[in-house]
Amino acid sequence: MGKSGTGKSSLCNAIFQSRICATHPLNGCTRQAHHLTLQIGERRMTLVDLPGIGETPQHDQEYRTLYRQLLPELDLIIWILRADERAYAADITMHQFLLNEGADPSRFLFVLSHADRVFPAEEWNATEKCP
């Protein structure tokens, strides 16, 4: 889960080491849930690539309905956040919506994408290891 363009489909492609999910640098490609099953030996895991929020209020309303329907079957929610972005209002709103719908807060794993696009901070204090 996460906003459109954060790299949700790209993460699925990286995990499966194949281009199984469509991606585009400018336009959102995922409009419905895309179930992907990975099997290693006897173990099987299903990832669900979901459409991203934040494009339009109409899409967000549709996706709330989709997320609500899928919530009971999700063991873990991987939420992708762009490291090079500071606008997280849509993420916060949807996260709160999911919590209000009964999502267990311990089932969220927040992942940063696009970390290679973050400029080094000039104010970094090397001694204290903090900004």
TrEMBL record:
Pfam families with a match to the protein in the record: MMR_HSR1 (PF01926)
GO cellular component, one term: cytosol
Tree of life domain: Bacteria
SUPFAM superfamilies hit by this protein: P-loop containing nucleoside triphosphate hydrolases
Gene Ontology MF term list: GTP binding
Residue span(s) of domain G: 1-100
GO biological process entries: tRNA methylation; tRNA wobble uridine modification
InterPro entries, sorted: GTP-bd (IPR006073), P-loop_NTPase (IPR027417)
Signal peptide (UniProt feature, chain positions): none
PANTHER family in UniProt: TRNA MODIFICATION GTPASE GTPBP3, TRNA MODIFICATION GTPASE GTPBP3, MITOCHONDRIAL
Name of this protein: GTPase
Taxonomy of the source species: Bacteria, Pseudomonadati, Pseudomonadota, Gammaproteobacteria, Enterobacterales
